[in-house]
Amino acid sequence: MYKAPRGTADILPEEQGYWRYVEDRAIALCLLYGYQRLDTPAFEDVQLFTRSIGEGTDIVTKEMYTFEDRSGNLLALRPEGTAPVCRAYLEHGMDNLPQPVKLYYLAAIFRYERPQAGRYRQHYQFGFEAIGDADPALDAEIVEMAWRFFELLGLGRLYLYLNSIGCKSCRPEYLESLKRYYSAHLSGLCSDCKARFEKNPLRLLDCKKTACYDVAEAAPKSTDYLCRDCKSHFETVVEYLKALKLPFDINHRLVRGLDYYTKTVFEIQPLGDGAQSALGGGGRYDDLIEELGGKPVPAIGFAAGMERVVLNLKEQKIAVPALPAPPVFVAHLGNEAKLEAVKLTSILRKDDIAAITATGDRSLKGQLRQANSLGSNYVAIIGDDEVKSGAVTLRNMMTGEQKTVSRVELIKLLTRVTQE
Ligand code: AMP
Q1: What residues have CB less than 8 Å from 40, skipping those under 6 apart?
Q2: CA 282–ligand 1 middle distance (angstroms)
Q3: For the segment 302-316, what is each residue's pLDDT rounded down to a tens digit?
Q4: What is the model's pTM?
Q5: Domain CATH code at residue 164
Protein backbone atom coordinates (compact mmCIF):
# COMPACT_ATOMS: atom_id res chain seq x y z
CA MET A 1 0.00 0.00 0.00
CA TYR A 2 1.30 3.43 -0.90
CA LYS A 3 1.17 6.19 1.68
CA ALA A 4 1.40 9.95 1.31
CA PRO A 5 5.08 10.96 1.64
CA ARG A 6 6.29 11.69 5.18
CA GLY A 7 5.38 15.21 6.27
CA THR A 8 2.56 15.59 3.75
CA ALA A 9 -1.16 15.22 4.35
CA ASP A 10 -4.29 14.61 2.33
CA ILE A 11 -6.96 17.23 2.92
CA LEU A 12 -9.99 14.98 3.07
CA PRO A 13 -13.54 16.00 2.10
CA GLU A 14 -14.58 16.30 5.76
CA GLU A 15 -11.75 18.83 6.30
CA GLN A 16 -12.67 20.94 3.30
CA GLY A 17 -15.24 23.01 5.21
CA TYR A 18 -12.38 24.51 7.29
CA TRP A 19 -10.26 25.20 4.24
CA ARG A 20 -13.12 26.79 2.35
CA TYR A 21 -13.89 28.94 5.41
CA VAL A 22 -10.28 30.17 5.62
CA GLU A 23 -9.86 30.69 1.86
CA ASP A 24 -13.15 32.59 1.58
CA ARG A 25 -12.08 34.96 4.35
CA ALA A 26 -8.59 35.36 2.89
CA ILE A 27 -10.03 36.34 -0.50
CA ALA A 28 -12.64 38.65 1.06
CA LEU A 29 -9.88 40.35 3.07
CA CYS A 30 -7.81 40.96 -0.07
CA LEU A 31 -10.80 42.47 -1.87
CA LEU A 32 -11.37 44.72 1.14
CA TYR A 33 -7.79 46.00 1.07
CA GLY A 34 -7.38 46.10 -2.72
CA TYR A 35 -4.95 43.20 -3.24
CA GLN A 36 -4.99 41.20 -6.48
CA ARG A 37 -4.27 37.51 -6.81
CA LEU A 38 -1.04 36.23 -8.33
CA ASP A 39 -0.35 32.55 -8.90
CA THR A 40 3.24 31.53 -9.60
CA PRO A 41 4.67 28.11 -10.52
CA ALA A 42 5.33 25.50 -7.84
CA PHE A 43 9.01 25.44 -8.84
CA GLU A 44 11.51 28.10 -9.82
CA ASP A 45 15.16 28.49 -10.69
CA VAL A 46 17.01 27.47 -7.53
CA GLN A 47 19.06 30.67 -7.54
CA LEU A 48 15.95 32.78 -7.05
CA PHE A 49 15.74 31.32 -3.56
CA THR A 50 19.41 31.01 -2.65
CA ARG A 51 19.94 34.69 -3.54
CA SER A 52 16.89 35.98 -1.75
CA ILE A 53 16.37 33.82 1.34
CA GLY A 54 20.11 33.76 2.12
CA GLU A 55 22.85 31.15 1.75
CA GLY A 56 23.23 30.66 5.51
CA THR A 57 19.54 30.16 6.35
CA ASP A 58 18.04 26.83 7.41
CA ILE A 59 15.71 26.93 4.42
CA VAL A 60 18.54 27.11 1.90
CA THR A 61 21.07 24.88 3.67
CA LYS A 62 18.76 22.12 4.87
CA GLU A 63 15.20 22.41 3.68
CA MET A 64 14.90 23.12 -0.03
CA TYR A 65 13.68 20.45 -2.41
CA THR A 66 16.10 20.97 -5.29
CA PHE A 67 16.31 18.88 -8.42
CA GLU A 68 17.75 18.87 -11.87
CA ASP A 69 15.23 18.46 -14.67
CA ARG A 70 15.88 16.45 -17.81
CA SER A 71 17.45 19.47 -19.52
CA GLY A 72 19.91 20.00 -16.69
CA ASN A 73 18.12 23.07 -15.21
CA LEU A 74 18.57 23.34 -11.45
CA LEU A 75 15.14 23.96 -9.94
CA ALA A 76 13.62 24.12 -6.45
CA LEU A 77 10.09 23.54 -5.21
CA ARG A 78 8.89 26.87 -3.79
CA PRO A 79 10.09 27.05 -0.14
CA GLU A 80 8.40 30.44 0.45
CA GLY A 81 6.10 32.82 -1.39
CA THR A 82 7.75 36.24 -1.49
CA ALA A 83 10.67 35.68 -3.86
CA PRO A 84 8.43 34.25 -6.64
CA VAL A 85 6.10 37.26 -6.29
CA CYS A 86 9.08 39.61 -6.67
CA ARG A 87 10.34 37.60 -9.65
CA ALA A 88 6.93 37.92 -11.31
CA TYR A 89 6.77 41.64 -10.44
CA LEU A 90 10.04 42.21 -12.30
CA GLU A 91 9.39 39.78 -15.13
CA HIS A 92 6.05 41.38 -16.01
CA GLY A 93 7.23 44.98 -15.69
CA MET A 94 4.95 45.71 -12.74
CA ASP A 95 7.49 48.33 -11.69
CA ASN A 96 5.98 50.45 -14.49
CA LEU A 97 2.52 50.33 -12.90
CA PRO A 98 1.37 52.87 -10.32
CA GLN A 99 3.08 51.87 -7.04
CA PRO A 100 2.58 50.19 -4.66
CA VAL A 101 1.50 47.02 -6.45
CA LYS A 102 -0.58 44.90 -4.07
CA LEU A 103 -0.68 41.15 -4.62
CA TYR A 104 -1.76 38.04 -2.75
CA TYR A 105 -1.33 34.30 -3.14
CA LEU A 106 -2.57 30.99 -1.80
CA ALA A 107 0.12 28.45 -2.56
CA ALA A 108 1.76 25.19 -1.58
CA ILE A 109 5.13 25.60 0.11
CA PHE A 110 7.75 22.83 0.32
CA ARG A 111 10.36 22.50 3.06
CA TYR A 112 12.26 19.41 4.10
CA GLU A 113 11.65 19.84 7.84
CA ARG A 114 11.29 17.37 10.67
CA PRO A 115 7.55 16.70 10.62
CA GLN A 116 5.51 17.28 13.78
CA ALA A 117 2.17 18.82 14.74
CA GLY A 118 1.78 22.01 12.68
CA ARG A 119 4.98 21.40 10.74
CA TYR A 120 4.85 19.70 7.37
CA ARG A 121 7.05 19.15 4.35
CA GLN A 122 4.27 20.48 2.15
CA HIS A 123 2.07 23.16 3.63
CA TYR A 124 -0.05 25.97 2.28
CA GLN A 125 0.42 29.67 2.83
CA PHE A 126 -1.83 32.65 2.35
CA GLY A 127 0.37 35.66 1.78
CA PHE A 128 0.11 39.25 0.60
CA GLU A 129 2.72 41.73 -0.53
CA ALA A 130 2.73 45.49 -1.15
CA ILE A 131 5.60 46.36 -3.48
CA GLY A 132 6.93 49.79 -4.39
CA ASP A 133 6.46 52.05 -1.38
CA ALA A 134 8.62 52.78 1.65
CA ASP A 135 5.89 54.61 3.57
CA PRO A 136 5.48 53.38 7.19
CA ALA A 137 1.73 53.74 6.63
CA LEU A 138 2.04 50.69 4.39
CA ASP A 139 3.72 48.72 7.19
CA ALA A 140 0.75 49.62 9.36
CA GLU A 141 -1.67 48.54 6.62
CA ILE A 142 0.01 45.13 6.24
CA VAL A 143 0.11 44.53 10.00
CA GLU A 144 -3.52 45.60 10.35
CA MET A 145 -4.53 43.40 7.44
CA ALA A 146 -2.80 40.38 9.01
CA TRP A 147 -4.53 41.04 12.31
CA ARG A 148 -7.88 41.57 10.58
CA PHE A 149 -7.50 38.20 8.85
CA PHE A 150 -7.48 36.40 12.19
CA GLU A 151 -10.35 38.57 13.43
CA LEU A 152 -12.42 37.64 10.37
CA LEU A 153 -11.74 34.00 11.15
CA GLY A 154 -12.99 34.50 14.69
CA LEU A 155 -9.67 33.48 16.25
CA GLY A 156 -8.89 34.98 19.63
CA ARG A 157 -6.11 34.76 22.22
CA LEU A 158 -3.43 35.88 19.78
CA TYR A 159 -0.29 37.93 20.28
CA LEU A 160 1.07 40.43 17.80
CA TYR A 161 4.83 40.93 18.09
CA LEU A 162 6.71 43.74 16.41
CA ASN A 163 10.37 44.57 15.99
CA SER A 164 12.73 46.45 13.70
CA ILE A 165 15.92 44.75 12.59
CA GLY A 166 17.32 47.81 10.82
CA CYS A 167 18.82 48.05 7.36
CA LYS A 168 22.14 47.29 5.68
CA SER A 169 23.65 50.51 6.99
CA CYS A 170 22.83 50.02 10.69
CA ARG A 171 22.63 46.24 11.02
CA PRO A 172 26.39 45.48 10.76
CA GLU A 173 27.09 47.49 13.90
CA TYR A 174 24.27 45.73 15.71
CA LEU A 175 25.53 42.30 14.58
CA GLU A 176 29.00 43.19 15.84
CA SER A 177 27.64 44.05 19.24
CA LEU A 178 25.47 40.91 19.26
CA LYS A 179 28.47 38.72 18.47
CA ARG A 180 30.55 40.45 21.12
CA TYR A 181 27.84 39.78 23.68
CA TYR A 182 27.33 36.16 22.60
CA SER A 183 31.04 35.33 22.51
CA ALA A 184 30.99 35.55 26.30
CA HIS A 185 28.06 33.09 26.53
CA LEU A 186 28.97 30.57 23.84
CA SER A 187 29.76 27.60 26.10
CA GLY A 188 26.24 27.54 27.59
CA LEU A 189 24.40 27.59 24.24
CA CYS A 190 22.83 24.68 22.35
CA SER A 191 24.72 23.20 19.40
CA ASP A 192 22.40 24.90 16.87
CA CYS A 193 23.16 28.28 18.42
CA LYS A 194 26.89 27.61 18.29
CA ALA A 195 26.51 27.16 14.53
CA ARG A 196 24.26 30.22 14.26
CA PHE A 197 26.91 32.31 16.00
CA GLU A 198 29.11 31.81 12.94
CA LYS A 199 26.54 31.66 10.16
CA ASN A 200 23.51 33.68 11.14
CA PRO A 201 23.94 35.52 14.48
CA LEU A 202 20.53 37.22 14.28
CA ARG A 203 18.87 33.82 14.59
CA LEU A 204 20.53 33.34 18.02
CA LEU A 205 17.78 35.54 19.37
CA ASP A 206 14.82 33.35 18.48
CA CYS A 207 16.16 30.01 19.77
CA LYS A 208 13.38 28.37 21.77
CA LYS A 209 15.66 26.19 23.94
CA THR A 210 15.57 27.03 27.64
CA ALA A 211 19.36 27.27 27.94
CA CYS A 212 19.48 29.91 25.23
CA TYR A 213 16.36 31.85 26.19
CA ASP A 214 17.78 33.83 29.11
CA VAL A 215 20.92 34.68 27.17
CA ALA A 216 18.77 35.95 24.28
CA GLU A 217 16.53 37.93 26.64
CA ALA A 218 19.48 39.91 27.95
CA ALA A 219 21.11 40.38 24.52
CA PRO A 220 21.56 43.83 22.93
CA LYS A 221 18.41 45.01 21.17
CA SER A 222 18.34 45.84 17.46
CA THR A 223 16.07 48.82 18.15
CA ASP A 224 18.91 50.44 20.15
CA TYR A 225 21.14 50.37 17.07
CA LEU A 226 18.82 51.75 14.40
CA CYS A 227 20.11 54.49 12.10
CA ARG A 228 18.16 57.73 11.91
CA ASP A 229 16.02 56.59 8.98
CA CYS A 230 15.18 53.18 10.52
CA LYS A 231 14.50 54.73 13.91
CA SER A 232 12.05 57.29 12.59
CA HIS A 233 10.43 54.63 10.37
CA PHE A 234 9.95 52.35 13.37
CA GLU A 235 8.58 55.17 15.54
CA THR A 236 6.08 56.09 12.84
CA VAL A 237 4.97 52.47 12.40
CA VAL A 238 4.43 52.26 16.17
CA GLU A 239 2.46 55.51 16.12
CA TYR A 240 0.19 54.25 13.31
CA LEU A 241 -0.36 50.89 14.96
CA LYS A 242 -1.36 52.64 18.18
CA ALA A 243 -3.73 54.90 16.24
CA LEU A 244 -5.25 51.78 14.67
CA LYS A 245 -5.62 50.34 18.18
CA LEU A 246 -3.73 47.17 17.34
CA PRO A 247 -2.67 45.26 20.46
CA PHE A 248 1.02 44.75 19.66
CA ASP A 249 4.06 44.13 21.85
CA ILE A 250 7.58 45.08 20.87
CA ASN A 251 9.69 41.93 21.05
CA HIS A 252 13.39 42.39 20.48
CA ARG A 253 13.89 38.63 20.05
CA LEU A 254 11.73 38.57 16.94
CA VAL A 255 14.02 38.34 13.90
CA ARG A 256 12.35 35.94 11.38
CA GLY A 257 14.14 33.17 9.52
CA LEU A 258 14.93 34.72 6.16
CA ASP A 259 17.80 37.07 5.34
CA TYR A 260 15.93 39.51 3.14
CA TYR A 261 14.04 41.32 5.90
CA THR A 262 14.80 44.95 6.71
CA LYS A 263 13.28 47.36 9.24
CA THR A 264 9.82 46.17 10.33
CA VAL A 265 9.30 42.51 11.20
CA PHE A 266 6.22 41.11 12.90
CA GLU A 267 4.63 37.83 13.85
CA ILE A 268 1.28 36.61 15.09
CA GLN A 269 1.34 33.82 17.65
CA PRO A 270 -1.33 32.05 19.62
CA LEU A 271 -1.16 31.91 23.39
CA GLY A 272 1.16 29.13 24.53
CA ASP A 273 4.66 29.00 23.22
CA GLY A 274 6.44 26.55 20.96
CA ALA A 275 8.59 26.58 17.87
CA GLN A 276 5.66 25.57 15.69
CA SER A 277 3.23 28.07 17.09
CA ALA A 278 3.55 31.11 14.82
CA LEU A 279 0.41 31.50 12.76
CA GLY A 280 1.98 33.98 10.44
CA GLY A 281 4.71 36.51 10.04
CA GLY A 282 6.04 39.14 7.76
CA GLY A 283 8.09 42.23 7.35
CA ARG A 284 9.78 44.70 5.04
CA TYR A 285 12.23 43.60 2.41
CA ASP A 286 13.47 46.84 0.92
CA ASP A 287 16.56 45.37 -0.80
CA LEU A 288 15.11 42.18 -2.25
CA ILE A 289 13.91 43.45 -5.63
CA GLU A 290 17.28 45.08 -6.29
CA GLU A 291 19.01 41.88 -5.18
CA LEU A 292 16.97 40.06 -7.83
CA GLY A 293 18.15 42.40 -10.56
CA GLY A 294 15.60 45.24 -10.42
CA LYS A 295 15.90 48.87 -9.40
CA PRO A 296 15.80 49.53 -5.64
CA VAL A 297 12.12 49.00 -4.81
CA PRO A 298 10.94 48.91 -1.18
CA ALA A 299 8.31 46.34 -0.22
CA ILE A 300 6.56 44.63 2.67
CA GLY A 301 4.52 41.44 3.06
CA PHE A 302 3.02 38.81 5.32
CA ALA A 303 2.24 35.09 5.12
CA ALA A 304 0.15 32.79 7.28
CA GLY A 305 0.27 28.99 7.39
CA MET A 306 -3.12 27.53 6.48
CA GLU A 307 -2.68 24.23 8.38
CA ARG A 308 -1.89 26.09 11.60
CA VAL A 309 -4.88 28.36 11.07
CA VAL A 310 -7.12 25.29 10.68
CA LEU A 311 -5.50 23.71 13.76
CA ASN A 312 -6.26 26.83 15.80
CA LEU A 313 -9.85 27.03 14.53
CA LYS A 314 -10.35 23.50 15.82
CA GLU A 315 -8.58 24.17 19.12
CA GLN A 316 -10.68 27.26 19.69
CA LYS A 317 -13.80 25.28 18.72
CA ILE A 318 -14.84 27.73 16.03
CA ALA A 319 -17.77 26.27 14.11
CA VAL A 320 -17.42 26.54 10.36
CA PRO A 321 -20.40 26.19 8.02
CA ALA A 322 -20.80 22.69 6.57
CA LEU A 323 -20.32 22.47 2.82
CA PRO A 324 -23.74 22.03 1.22
CA ALA A 325 -24.84 18.50 0.27
CA PRO A 326 -26.83 18.10 -2.95
CA PRO A 327 -30.40 18.67 -1.72
CA VAL A 328 -32.06 16.28 -4.16
CA PHE A 329 -31.64 12.56 -4.63
CA VAL A 330 -33.39 10.83 -7.53
CA ALA A 331 -34.41 7.25 -6.70
CA HIS A 332 -35.78 4.70 -9.18
CA LEU A 333 -37.41 1.29 -9.37
CA GLY A 334 -36.81 -0.79 -12.49
CA ASN A 335 -34.78 -0.37 -15.67
CA GLU A 336 -37.11 2.02 -17.46
CA ALA A 337 -37.36 4.13 -14.34
CA LYS A 338 -33.59 4.24 -14.05
CA LEU A 339 -33.28 5.76 -17.53
CA GLU A 340 -35.94 8.36 -16.57
CA ALA A 341 -34.06 9.07 -13.31
CA VAL A 342 -30.79 9.68 -15.18
CA LYS A 343 -32.65 12.07 -17.56
CA LEU A 344 -34.44 13.84 -14.71
CA THR A 345 -31.20 14.32 -12.74
CA SER A 346 -29.60 15.88 -15.80
CA ILE A 347 -32.59 18.26 -16.23
CA LEU A 348 -32.44 19.28 -12.54
CA ARG A 349 -28.73 20.09 -12.81
CA LYS A 350 -29.36 22.15 -15.96
CA ASP A 351 -31.90 24.08 -13.89
CA ASP A 352 -29.17 24.70 -11.28
CA ILE A 353 -30.61 22.28 -8.76
CA ALA A 354 -27.83 20.15 -7.30
CA ALA A 355 -28.90 16.51 -7.58
CA ILE A 356 -27.56 12.98 -7.54
CA THR A 357 -29.09 9.77 -8.72
CA ALA A 358 -28.59 6.24 -7.47
CA THR A 359 -26.29 4.07 -9.57
CA GLY A 360 -26.31 0.28 -9.37
CA ASP A 361 -29.49 -1.55 -8.44
CA ARG A 362 -30.20 -0.95 -4.78
CA SER A 363 -33.71 -1.46 -3.43
CA LEU A 364 -35.81 1.66 -2.80
CA LYS A 365 -35.09 1.27 0.91
CA GLY A 366 -31.35 1.13 0.18
CA GLN A 367 -31.60 4.22 -2.01
CA LEU A 368 -33.46 6.16 0.69
CA ARG A 369 -30.76 5.17 3.17
CA GLN A 370 -28.13 6.42 0.74
CA ALA A 371 -30.01 9.72 0.29
CA ASN A 372 -30.14 10.06 4.04
CA SER A 373 -26.44 9.49 4.54
CA LEU A 374 -25.63 11.98 1.78
CA GLY A 375 -27.74 14.57 3.59
CA SER A 376 -30.25 15.08 0.76
CA ASN A 377 -33.43 16.68 2.04
CA TYR A 378 -35.61 15.64 -0.91
CA VAL A 379 -35.92 12.39 -2.80
CA ALA A 380 -37.65 12.30 -6.19
CA ILE A 381 -38.90 8.74 -6.77
CA ILE A 382 -39.61 7.29 -10.19
CA GLY A 383 -41.32 3.88 -10.37
CA ASP A 384 -43.41 2.12 -13.06
CA ASP A 385 -46.44 4.35 -12.42
CA GLU A 386 -44.37 7.48 -12.72
CA VAL A 387 -42.77 6.24 -15.96
CA LYS A 388 -46.26 5.81 -17.44
CA SER A 389 -47.74 9.05 -16.13
CA GLY A 390 -44.62 11.22 -16.48
CA ALA A 391 -45.13 12.35 -12.87
CA VAL A 392 -42.68 12.09 -9.96
CA THR A 393 -43.20 11.25 -6.28
CA LEU A 394 -41.41 13.73 -4.07
CA ARG A 395 -40.48 12.71 -0.54
CA ASN A 396 -39.52 15.29 2.03
CA MET A 397 -36.86 13.48 4.06
CA MET A 398 -37.19 15.85 7.01
CA THR A 399 -40.94 15.28 7.52
CA GLY A 400 -41.42 11.94 5.72
CA GLU A 401 -44.26 13.56 3.69
CA GLN A 402 -44.76 12.35 0.09
CA LYS A 403 -46.71 13.75 -2.85
CA THR A 404 -46.95 13.07 -6.56
CA VAL A 405 -46.31 16.06 -8.81
CA SER A 406 -45.76 16.76 -12.48
CA ARG A 407 -42.18 17.42 -13.63
CA VAL A 408 -42.90 21.09 -14.21
CA GLU A 409 -44.25 21.37 -10.66
CA LEU A 410 -41.30 19.40 -9.33
CA ILE A 411 -38.78 21.83 -10.80
CA LYS A 412 -40.73 24.85 -9.54
CA LEU A 413 -41.00 23.36 -6.09
CA LEU A 414 -37.37 22.29 -5.86
CA THR A 415 -36.16 25.64 -7.20
CA ARG A 416 -38.13 27.34 -4.43
CA VAL A 417 -37.02 25.07 -1.57
CA THR A 418 -33.37 24.85 -2.60
CA GLN A 419 -33.07 28.62 -2.83
CA GLU A 420 -34.68 29.25 0.54
P1 AMP B 1 7.64 31.64 7.24
O2 AMP B 1 7.77 31.80 5.77
O3 AMP B 1 8.60 30.63 7.80
O4 AMP B 1 7.58 32.89 8.01
O5 AMP B 1 6.22 30.95 7.44
C6 AMP B 1 5.02 31.67 7.44
C7 AMP B 1 3.99 30.85 8.16
O8 AMP B 1 3.82 29.60 7.47
C9 AMP B 1 4.40 30.44 9.56
O10 AMP B 1 4.04 31.41 10.48
C11 AMP B 1 3.59 29.17 9.75
O12 AMP B 1 2.27 29.46 10.12
C13 AMP B 1 3.58 28.56 8.39
N14 AMP B 1 4.63 27.52 8.24
C15 AMP B 1 5.96 27.70 8.03
N16 AMP B 1 6.58 26.52 7.91
C17 AMP B 1 5.65 25.57 8.04
C18 AMP B 1 5.64 24.14 7.99
N19 AMP B 1 6.77 23.45 7.78
N20 AMP B 1 4.47 23.48 8.16
C21 AMP B 1 3.33 24.16 8.37
N22 AMP B 1 3.26 25.49 8.41
C23 AMP B 1 4.39 26.20 8.26
Answers
A1: 78, 81, 84, 85, 87, 88, 105, 107
A2: 11
A3: 999 999 999 999 999
A4: 0.93
A5: 3.30.930.10
